[in-house]
Amino acid sequence: MTRYDPATIEAKWQKAWDDAGLFRAERDPSRPKYYVLEMFPYPSGRIHIGHVRNYTMGDVVARYKRSTGHNVLHPMGFDAFGMPAENAAMANGGHPKDWTYQNIDTMVGQMKPLGLSLDWSRMFATCDPEYYGQQQALFLDFLDKGLVYRKNAVVNWDPVDMTVLANEQVENGRGWRSGAVVERRELTQWFFRISDMADELLEALDGLDDWPAKVKTMQANWIGKSRGLQFSFGVVDAAHGHDRIEVYTTRPDTLMGASFVGISPDHPLAKELERHDPEVAAFCEKARQGGTTEEAIETAEKLGYDTGIRVRHPFDTSWELPVYIANFILMDYGTGAIFGCPAHDQRDFEFATKYDLPIIPTFEPLEGACPEGEAFVPMKSEKVRWIRGFGWDEEASGQDAVNAAIAFCEANGVGQGVTKFRLRDWGLSRQRFWGAPIPVVHCDSCGVVPEKKENLPVELPYDVSFDQPGNPLDRHPTWRNVSCPACGGPALRETDTMDTFVDSSWYFARFTAPEADTPTVAEDVDYWMNVDQYIGGIEHAILHLLYSRFFARAMHLCGHLPAKSKEPFDALFTQGMVTHAIFQTKDANGRPVYHYPEDVDLRDGRGFLKDGTEVEIVPSAKMSKSKNNVVDPVAIIGQYGADTARWFVLSDSPPERDVEWTAAGAEAAHKHLARVWRIAAEVAEASGEATVQGADEQLLREMHKAIRDVTLGVESFGFNAAIAKLYAFTNTLSKSQAGARAKREAAMVLAQLMSPMTPHLAEDVWAMLGGEGLITEARWPEADEAMMVEDSVTLPIQVNGKRRGEITVPKDMDQAEVEKAALAVDNVQRALDGAQPRKVIVVPGRIVNVVV
RNA sequence: GCCCGCGUGGUGGAAUGGUAGACACAGGGGACUUAAAAUCCCUAGGCCUUGUGCCGUGCCGGUUCGAGUCCGGCCGCGGGUACCA
């Protein structure tokens, strides 16, 4: 008998699958289709263990579905545009294209040995002109349908490098290269009208039964539908041509507690004042400092500037409120102006305290008084006592009061109730090179003119350099100067490229016909769509998935997807990250130095470098190149084989949770696979009958239970639970006294149950035991209920909820008998200590609880 | 700041509101071996008065015959926060 030798068998079976062309997907209306997709990777240069986990989960689903008779589509591609390629070009020279395609080559070379059941013939990268040309065609169709427009929006501006920065490139409000204080600057940009679909995107979440509830909640909160009051304050003396300030509030019930009006630094009135008043201009400049992220704006110090302008309260014209310009008010949301009620909003409270503004409560708790030193902000559903309401019950919840306030205001001619969404339109313009060019030209006489479809793709030029900041397209001598598609006169090509989220918003549809000369092909999307199971990281819960949902609708409007694909992902699973400890020491300046895991010796939970220096261990950190804690799966595969890597990433941790990579875990996984192989080899050579009465039946009963539990585990993404069951069943088989025939049957089923996770080992075991054909093509086994019946059951007995004993009774014993048997147990009597049971709860087949 | 998660032995984790710690790692003990590796078997939450005893699922409180699980409030960690992908 030889030994388990993954290097040999993995190559052998991968060749067998290839030769049989098993994973090439072809339309076949006679069979049910199944489309399983993992979020495609960014070609960073090397796969990491998180990729292995993600793709292995998808592969388990794909292989399982194949074994239940489905025609499976399981494709792979690369999300290949984006900043890292440009950063590499800036740092090391070269072209982003070369860097990207080299990385893709490397990563495909690293992925192939994993034995994933992928249809590699469908592979593409989003930076292929054949892909982004079709994306440009989609853009033109969207433009035609009025789904795209231009408007001004703020970006991070680096005043030293004279360039736009990504949020990631802003560190503590400064540009990452120049170190200059970043400012928010307006630029004309392209937008998709996603906000027109806000209500539909919200409503349709209800139909996504196989999406995680948390993702739907996050999307619903992001879309942020709110009912509120829009009204205006009259300006005293109609300063600067503005006689009214329009505000939007979701808490009109607190209007009688208003103490100031705040406007955004980008509000038209603020801009008007800025032009005439250097002091206001200086304030606005300061207020615009820092990055554009919501986080930066919300956590920045709250700054206000009293404009001196006063407005009148709508219900008391003698009551005047000051108008402040405030850095925390966004022009993008509502009207860019608010009123502040410090008594019932913590942010307003802090602002009012800082600028010495009155704090006027409109309601109090039903018992006690408002808290000192902070705003009183109860849940909207909680009832409170109103002291400055206008006309509803003295005791009412915030929610009821909001509705009553809107009705009252409308009846009195103060504004109207409106529904607003937090969701903003999707800005797709990027002032960068490495993205899909936006296919329009700017003509002096015709304005913005779409490129003709026959001229697509508008391809990125190769002769560019990255030796200065900014977009090389802006300074390209010939690429930019074109003739107008409409009038033939001189024109300039648009140099903005598309957000990479556009690339990933339709790749799943393109996989159904990756080489077509239209974005999609009707027969292919009709057959293959929707994605039956989509798998990816929780970090994409909002943006990528929401944009894809929008894109699917937009593509449907343009005839590129059927109506059923408006929601393109039938089921979604979000998996956790793979983490690894960080090993760090400090350099002379106190800055952290990160060490590779292979350079650290672990002893008793402490880590030491070769020279004996102790390192600080930061547990469970997200793997990151810059922290040197990335585990390279290629080394693991080389050492133990792909099946070990696959088995390990699935075992131990529930798929939706983060998993800590440990070298010991991989070693253990390998030992187990070697053991399965050895047991199978023994079974293959065994002969004879059972040595113990009933051993065959017992083994087969356990086998059917394993089929049931593993099938359930695979179907419900309980891969770790399925693997625990497989460990247990392996132990059962190993110790079984059953005869050769029963053992052989059990071992073959074990191989089948393992085949989605460790397909090479499974093939080898299958062949060793004389299985017919490839296990990859074998039908999934079915659990036989009749084989699993047990005739007695063990029930724990509790007294007042504490376990005091157990009884084993026939399965169908009636409750009164069970109760009697339970009370007869010695230890139960001792626990009762003479007391009379008040009640005995018998949960059939589960538990008995005696209540005293 | 705001939204969404997560928190169970030395470690990863299991547990439709029903025996907390399945399965595995590391540890301890043993078998086999000249020895080692490999393999196999046993053991294993904490505490003590060793009783089928007490405590125990981040902390505090609640609902329930019964809570790791449901509810409320804290603490800690992670993801997202619209130009990282």
TrEMBL record:
Using the record's annotation, list all stretches that form the Leucyl-tRNA synthetase editing domain: 221-369
Question: Could you name the domain of life of the organism this protein comes from?
Answer: Bacteria
SUPFAM superfamilies in UniProt: Anticodon-binding domain of a subclass of class I aminoacyl-tRNA synthetases (SSF47323), Nucleotidylyl transferase (SSF52374), ValRS/IleRS/LeuRS editing domain (SSF50677)
- Which Gene3D superfamilies does its entry note? 2.20.28.290, 3.10.20.590, HUPs, Isoleucyl-tRNA Synthetase, Domain 1, Valyl/Leucyl/Isoleucyl-tRNA synthetase, editing domain
Where in the numbering of this chain does the Aminoacyl-tRNA synthetase class Ia domain appear?
424-580, 622-661
Q: Which UniProt keywords apply?
A: Aminoacyl-tRNA synthetase, ATP-binding, Cytoplasm, Ligase, Nucleotide-binding, Protein biosynthesis
Reaction catalysed by this enzyme: tRNA(Leu) + L-leucine + ATP = L-leucyl-tRNA(Leu) + AMP + diphosphate
Residues annotated as binding ATP: 625
**PROSITE patterns in the cross-refs:** AA_TRNA_LIGASE_I (PS00178)
Enzyme class per UniProt: ligase
Keyword Cytoplasm in record = yes
The biological process GO terms on file are:
leucyl-tRNA aminoacylation
Residues of the signal peptide: none
The molecule here is called: Leucine--tRNA ligase
> What organism is recorded for this protein?
Pseudooceanicola nanhaiensis
